[in-house]
What does this fold into?
Amino acid sequence: MNTTLILAWRNLWRHQRRTWLTVGAMVFSNILLVFMITLQFGSYDMMIENSLKAYSGHVQVAAQGYNEQTKMRLALDNITGKSEQIRQANPKLSVAARSMAFVLASSETRSFGLQVAGVEVEHETAVSSIPGLVKSGRYLIDGNAGEIVIGRVLARNLQSEVGDEITLLGSGYDGSFAAAVVKVVGIFESGISEIDRSLAQLNLDEFQTLFAMGDRGHTIIVNAPDISETQHYQNLLEGTLNANGTTLNDLEILNWEQLNPGLRQAIQSDMASAWFMYAVLIVLVAFSVLNTQLMSVLERTREFGIMTAIGLRPGKLGRLVLLETTVMATLGFVIGCLLGAAVAVYF
It folds into this structure.
């Protein structure tokens, strides 16, 4: 085998230009593959983080059936207490409680339906990007009553600006009539049209008072240190809540894939089309190398005849040609992966 390898190596460098052109084609394709694959998976991580950070979080704890029906009465008792329990048991997690309701919002000239969220202001920043996306005015201040932040599209639809008052009309937890006049203190722009058009936020305490919620709330938003650890912390949450006497049969703890099945399907669809293109690139390069090797074999017919005449078996001759191709492929793979990794790290 050593003799065959030496012969293969010498044969390659008898035609250095052809060898380097062939290896160069493989190096280029490997650089492109490594860079595009790392770019693709990096964009997926960014897309997931941006989508989840805006609203839903990595994991949500809610009453059984709430995420399917989003009914006001499907609420958790002592919502802030439960969120604090999770926070103390798992210091690495970002945790915040929320309550949700659908209301009719009216300005001086227009009315629109929207979803209003009551948030723990001091903890919302850790689980949502919305507090940092306020483009006009400011975000909510913990303890301040009568304040609301709304999306940019909603503000345009209501023809409201920072400082204007809007009226909220809805139904409370106990079926009572919920009404309040609140002042717009901030307008955010998340870049997600659905959120900017239909979401507003209040202080959680004020929300609970307005909608007669008592100490109840609808969801606990949990963000893990890294999205790859979501499943691990989802299991920890079950243990934490169970240890504190909460009946898990009354709860559902859902991760981001269960909350956003469309996002996962979009990623899988894009990945399938991308891998098809990568396969086409690999096949094209393979046929290019095959063509080069075929020409190399045809122009060495007399050489192979002499080698066969002096006793070299056809099987060993075939292994020699195969080994030459393998050596070139190995060179192209190693150099291409190293340069591709360097390009990916640089960017």
User: Anything to note?
Assistant: The first strand starts at residue 59 and ends at 63.
